[in-house]
Amino acid sequence: MTEEERQSNKRKGKPHRRGSGSVFRRPERKGKQWVAQLILENGKSRQRYFNTQAEAEEALTEMLYERRRGMLATGPKQTLSYYLEYWLELRRTRVRESTYTNYAMLIKRHILPALGQVRLQELKVQQIDALYMSKQQEGLSSKTIRCIHNVLHSALNHAVRINLLARNVADVASPPRKTKKERRSLTQAQVRKLLETARGYRIEGLLTVALATGMRRGELLGLTWQDVNPEQRTLQVQRTVNRIGRRGFVVGEPKTATSRRQITLPPSVIDVLRQHKARQEEDRKAAGAMWEEHDLVFCNRVGRFLDPATLHEEFTALLKAAGLPHMRFHDLRHTTATLLLEKGIHAKIVQELLGHSTIAMTMDIYSHVLPSIQQEAVDKLDDLFR
Questions:
Q1: DSSP assignment of 148-181, as one string?
Q2: What is the pLDDT of residues 182-206, one digit of tens each?
Q3: SS3 state at 215
Q4: CA 278 to CA 281: how far, in whole Å?
Q5: Are residues 214 and 354 in contact, defined by beta-carbon separation less than 8 angstroms?
Q6: Among candidate residues 78, 28, 80, the one with its CA nearest the CA of residue 49
Q7: Residue 97 CB-density burial (10 A; 0-12 exposed, 13-18 middle, 19+ buried)
Q8: Model's pTM, two decimal places?
Q9: What is the spatial distance between Cα 138 and Cα 83, in angstroms, rounded to a whole number?
């Protein structure tokens, strides 16, 4: 059959077969005319209707995949647990591994115990709201409950898209409001105190680069010497490293497309990095045959990835030695952004330095800094009228 004949058959509504399924058009129907059809083992067919051929073909691909996995939902008795298992499998290759692991944890720990046995097509808004209220009573933070909501909402959206559900009941569910978390940051004097105390500590170089760049912890732990150009005083953020349960250390892509970025370093930071590399050479000699070469800028005593738990312990001890309040390592990132904004650096520059996806995100996170900046701007404007 020629290509012209095949296209003619499609226009006439004849099935376009793919394995034991087919995609065809029913022009006599009102509304959705494209059909994705799968022949089941009992000889019966399963059909779903779509507006376009592309949507129907995508749905058929998923239906064939579901059947190969033995997970095809053939009727209204499918439970939410059964469906979420299928949805998670689809997500596995479409999101970062750390994101997939987080989805799986939220589903297993929070959603399935409460709603797993509910039939997908019988899930009600009241049941979802009851889940959120029970999690609040258990003491979960608003942020965690909203993460549960986002996972459930995304999964049900997919069910609507492939015609398993007529509507997404999570659309009208009521997760707790997003609360503004107080972000700690150090003053300029406290930063100086921290760096002075850090001299001679193993994490001196790591702290210096963190404060100078605002890089995320995973980005710092994934940095290699090949990413650093001392002559041009730049470094490239090209990967991130996270420790994920039993999987151990997992190297992945940066958090967003804008997270893959080039950062210019002050000359003083380049000097600290040179000193850090010299100390690393001493560690290499001391480790001897135990050293594992991964070209990491910040590693443990034998060249392997630096464990985030070890970093937390050393950072906490350093804060105590400096007489500074307890804070998360991530708060160094907030410190960098806050100090830059307070010094009048444009928010667009801060956004690019931090690798935020939009300037709106930067402005939203650091809105607490804006009043002082606005006051300074008003004071300068006032000079024009004097």
A1: HHHHHHHHHHHHHHTTS-SS-GGGG--PPPPPPP
A2: 678 899 999 999 999 999 889 999 9
A3: coil
A4: 5
A5: yes
A6: 28
A7: middle
A8: 0.67
A9: 26
